[in-house]
């Protein structure tokens, strides 16, 4: 017996998906100023130019999204993109992690958020990952890079790596948060204060580099967010390695365009937030 349950459903064809997605980022394609704010490839170029320490990456594939986003169709088995995807996902070098240009895997996020450590998760990148699928669907390019990055043995405070998120709006640093609100970072602590100063300096260098190059981070969500179309808006994440060096990890959308508020949850993003349970500390100087 055959089912006719799906008879009345017409799936968009690949060209239609392609055209629909591209229409969503037409202004990015047409502009010399706008660049894709959820592209690690883009941000690492600016980090290098700004002369700040960063976790390096190697681009190992560049895959067509119109194919990847239809991974659940029988035809995908014959698609050359599948071969490329398998070649890079099955050969992640030891001590490295794999990620999309726009995000890492849900498994890695979960492992880090719950304090289990990355181990297996850092070397997996599945197509049926719901978080990655959504982010890839919004990715304002026709193809997406796949990166290998050396795994940084981070400095830990309690259960989580020492990491920070810096919030930039209208060319200004408006806030810095402890990235992992699952546990607090100490106030009045020399080491933390040093990290915060470096986060500010490094992010300022990124802002200065963008200004000099006349570049503005952008993604389609910026259209609807309450953000000026002429300002620089983004978030930048930094990780402290086990040798005490703070390194730029990645950058992404502005807070008003979807970035997680970390310890600023439920509060305005302003000053330094080291714990979700305490008021942020205003910037000095
Ligand atoms: N190369 C790396 N070395 C050490 N930790 C990493 C590395 N890449 C990612 N992580 C950890 O995994 C988390 C999630 O990875 P990330 O690349 O930021 O993905 P996403 O863009 O999805 O947030 C980071 O916040 C960090 O704690
Ligand atoms: Mg991240």
Keywords for this structure?
three-stranded antiparallel beta sheet, 285 residues, five-stranded mixed beta sheet, 2 domains, binds adenosine-5'-diphosphate, globular, 12 strands, alpha+beta, binds magnesium ion, D-amino Acid Aminotransferase, Chain A, domain 1
Would you mind describing this structure in some detail?
The chain has 285 residues and is α+β, with helices and mostly antiparallel strands. The protein folds into two domains: 56-151, no CATH class; 156-273, D-amino Acid Aminotransferase, Chain A, domain 1 (2-Layer Sandwich). Helices cover 29% and strands 21% of the residues. It has eight helices and twelve strands. The protein has helices spanning 14-24, 26-30, 40-50, 65-68, 80-89, 106-113, 130-138, 190-213, and strands at residues 34-36, 58-64, 96-100, 143-150, 156-157, 160-161, 163-169, 172-178, 216-218, 234-240, 246-252, 271-273. The protein has a five-stranded mixed β-sheet with strand order 11-10-7-8-12. A three-stranded antiparallel β-sheet has the order 2-4-3. The longest helix is centred in the last third of the chain and has 24 residues, at 190-213. The mean pLDDT is 93. Adenosine-5'-diphosphate is lined by residues 55, 97, 99, 103-104, 108-109, 112, 149, 151-152, 154, 161, 163, 237, 239, 249-250.
